[in-house]
Amino acid sequence: MALRWIVARNPLYPLSAALLLFGINRLSTDVVLTASILARWLNGYWEPRIVAVTVGICLLAGPAYYLFDKTKTPPAGQVAIIGSFLLFALGTIAALTRSLWNPSVSRSNE
């Protein structure tokens, strides 16, 4: 009964409730991503990907906020283990991509 009264007083309540339920960030990024994909598909031109990258970053904002909110005070051991895995991953990426960012003379002739 109270919900009917609220909807009768404010006809935009269902829309605002949907925005709060799904999040204005999620809704706006879905609209932008859909429009971008549709325009690219119709034009056949896919090159500048800045819109897709920006939308991806915005879509990750919600889960990232939840993650950071839940991990405000993690145990020190957990932080050390996660940090060591991240450093290991960065080192592995650096080693695998070394030829791209540090071209050098081949060492096979030495």
- Biggest beta sheet summary: none
N-to-C CA distance: 85 Å
Question: How many helical stretches?
Answer: 6
Q: What is the string of SSEs from the N terminus onward? A: HHHHHH
- Report the C-alpha radius of gyration, rounded: 24 Å
In terms of DSSP E residues, the strand content is under 5%
**What structural class is derived from the secondary structure elements?**
mainly alpha
The total strand number stands at 0
- Helix share of residues? over 70%
General description of the model:
The protein is mostly helical. It is 76% helix and 0% strand. It contains 6 helices and no strands. It is flat, with a radius of gyration of 24 Å. The protein starts with a helix and ends in a 9-residue tail after the last helix. The model has no long low-confidence stretch (mean pLDDT 76).
